[in-house]
Amino acid sequence: MDEHVAELVAQGRRSLELAPNRFLEQLERGEVSAGRLRALAGELFHLVSSDRSSFAFLAARFPEPLFLAMAGAEEEALRLLPDFAAVVGLGEKELRAHEPRPLAQAYPSFVVRTAVFGPRSAIPLALLVNVEESGGFYARVADALQARYGFSDEAVAHFRYFAETPDEVLEQAAEVVSTGLATGDDPVEALRAARMVHAYEAMFWATMAE
């Protein structure tokens, strides 16, 4: 990661408004009902499906392999999600039929807008800025589901998958940010996208806590 990109990532992380994740706290206390876990599965189905399409669109806009890799990662996450859904009583038909909550889907809606209209560097910078916290959230979900609810490794594989982002992907993201900046991307706009992604992901989890 070159010095300019590293400074942008550090600046982005300093700008984040961190707050407790109430849904995770509830989950770790064993207070989330089966109905709310079903809602989580349904919302994640819509969210991940949308992100897969967004990253595929970015791959069509820009030549870097990162975006196709990100779309493939969402595809793999979708493949793993039914194992979680089945444990909470949802089949594929029920997942698709889930009626999404608007505030839970604000995050993927912003990603769509950024994929269509945003600069090349926006989503990769958002990944670099938010990956540590976001991955930690997914790890905590998996840990709580196993410790408090007795879920199997297979049932939490979707969350474990998102808990770890390969170093190769992060290196590719840094390279794309560097290329974007070198070809005229506005760093202020890219940082704004990173902050917005963080805020919208927080909104997703807050909605799940209600």
Mean pLDDT: 97
Gyration radius over CA: 17 Å
Number of DSSP strand runs: 0
Query: What proportion strand?
Result: under 5%
Low-confidence spans: none
- Here the CATH topology equals Heme Oxygenase, Chain A
Write down the secondary-structure element order: HHHHHHHHHH
Question: How many domain regions?
Answer: 1
> What is the H level of CATH, i.e. the homologous superfamily?
Heme oxygenase-like
Count every helix, treating DSSP H or I runs of 4 or more residues as helices. Answer: 10
Please state the overall shape, judged from the principal axes of the Cα atoms.
globular
Main beta sheet: none
Distance separating the two termini = 39 Å
The CATH class name reads Mainly Alpha
* Structural class by helix and strand composition: mainly alpha
CATH architecture classification? Up-down Bundle
* DSSP helix fraction: over 70%
Organism: Micromonospora peucetia
Protein name: Thiaminase
InterPro entries: Haem_Oase-like_multi-hlx (IPR016084)
